[in-house]
Design goal:
alpha+beta; globular; Ribosomal Protein S5, domain 2; single chain; 21% strand; 12 strands; Alpha-Beta Plaits; binds alpha-D-galactopyranose; four-stranded antiparallel beta sheet
């Protein structure tokens, strides 16, 4: 699975037609993300700086013609599609289950109940439920074929990318007219209220709002954005993702506890979020644990600002914009490990082994407790660093990590 194998619109249309027996109306893609810095700040109304990566969820979508048996009308019969009821939304994916069957499912907007559905289908179902609640449109009678190059469970937001791809596809064929901001907030509600994961907005925003070759500087308090140039090639650099293959779940891990701790700390000072708290405040009234969490959030917001200064050229030497952020990445990792306590032995090993092998900066990304780390390296060191990380994992008896390079891709769009 690599970026080069991204399907074309023509191939998606072909797969859709083979699956459902008629031609789709349009194809879309929504990328996964790597957050450069600004971790566990989004739900604290703080600052984040993700890139959209060059791996994406791709969908082909078609509204079933109303008055005909589409399966019979065309020469080729539909294959692998679940039986349909008139208002159902059918989804077929190229991913396969343990028995080799393609993952597929169907539901109607009317039957959806928040919190009742589990697994991958809950993400598109959450989007459909939120579309009904937000716009009053009960989408139905529609088919989606999905292909993804975002590794699942690696902490690169494969499920958020799926939500975004499904939303922009439904937005177009049902003429919902949602703007980017509304799309970000709608997919967040799908995740929070329907799926039951109390996540923030960095992942969806990265997928929807990022421009090619840029990182997205996002203020999660008001969703104001600035596109920040991020050109690895210009500095002879690569960004490696090290997927520890330790799985994590934001509905079940300590993610919710961290969020609660921050909200309780804000509540003690009578403010809505930690962003509204004066950073000079005396943290005396908090527990030791709350103090550590708050310290991470304050320092991480500051690191995002300094990172942006470097990347925009006001914080370092010309030609060293990205190189200038290496120390900030390391400081972010230390803070996530020690103050926020969301790292794990595999993530720490990834960072340490990459640094020992010559990386210039590294840190865990995402919610933590598993998932991926990133390492910023000189292009010439890619193999050496990758091999060293794999060897370090083997020496400690961990599963072999998946190591691959990513670059700053472009935000979600229609593909023709
Ligand atoms: C996960 C969540 C995001 C964010 C990060 C931590 O990726 O989905 O909203 O909170 O963790 O920064």
């Amino acid at each position: 699975m690599n970026a080069a194998s991204a399907p074309t619109a023509a191939r998606l249309a072909e797969e859709f037609a083979t699956t459902f027996g008629y031609s789709p109306q349009a194809c879309f893609r929504a990328p996964g993300r790597v957050n450069l810095i600004g971790e566990h700040t989004d739900y604290n109304n703080g600052l984040v700086l993700p890139i959209a990566i060059d791996r994406a969820v791709h969908v082909a979508i078609g509204r079933r013609p109303q008055d005909r048996r589409v399966d019979e009308e065309q020469d080729r019969p539909a294959t692998a599609a679940p039986p349909r009821s008139p208002q159902s939304i059918r989804i077929v994916s190229d991913h396969r289950d343990d028995s080799g069957e393609r993952l597929s499912g169907q539901f109607t907007a009317a039957e959806l109940v928040p919190g009742q559905m589990r697994g991958w289908l809950s993400h598109p179902a959450g989007v459909v439920d939120e579309i009904a609640k937000t716009t009053g449109t009960m989408v139905g009678g529609v088919d989606l074929y999905v292909e993804s190059t975002v590794p699942v469970g690696a902490g690169l937001s494969s499920s958020h990318a799926l939500e975004v791809a499904v939303l922009i596809a439904l937005d177009e064929v049902f003429d919902l007219g949602l703007n980017d901001r509304e799309k970000v907030l709608l997919t967040q509600r799908a995740e929070n209220d329907f799926v039951g994961a109390p996540t923030g907005i960095v992942d969806q925003a990265a997928s929807i709002m990022t421009e090619a070759g840029h990182a997205l500087f996002l203020d999660c308090r008001d969703l104001r954005t600035r596109q920040i140039p991020f050109d690895l090639d210009a500095e002879g650099l690569r960004l490696l993702v090290i997927d520890t293959r330790v799985s994590h779940s934001h509905s079940e891990s300590g993610y919710g506890d961290r969020r609660r701790s921050c909200e309780e700390a804000a509540g003690i000072f009578g403010v809505e979020s930690l962003r509204e708290l004066d950073e000079a405040v005396d943290l005396g009234p908090l527990t030791d644990e709350q103090r550590k969490r708050v310290r991470h959030v304050f320092n991480e917001n500051a690191r995002v600002r300094t990172t942006v200064d470097h990347l925009e050229g006001s914080g370092g030497q010309a030609g060293h914009r990205i190189r200038g952020i290496a120390e900030l990445l390391l400081a972010s990792h230390a803070s996530l490990a020690e103050d926020y306590e969301v790292s794990c032995p595999e993530l720490d090993t990834a960072v340490e082994a990459a640094m020992e092998a010559g990386a210039i900066g590294a840190r865990m990304i995402g919610g933590g407790f598993g998932g991926s780390a990133i390492a910023l390296i000189d292009a010439a060191d890619a193999d050496r660093v990758g091999d060293a990380v794999i060897a370090a994992f083997a020496a400690r008896g961990y599963r072999t990590p998946d190591v691959f390079a990513v670059s700053a891709g472009t935000g979600a769009s229609r593909i023709d």
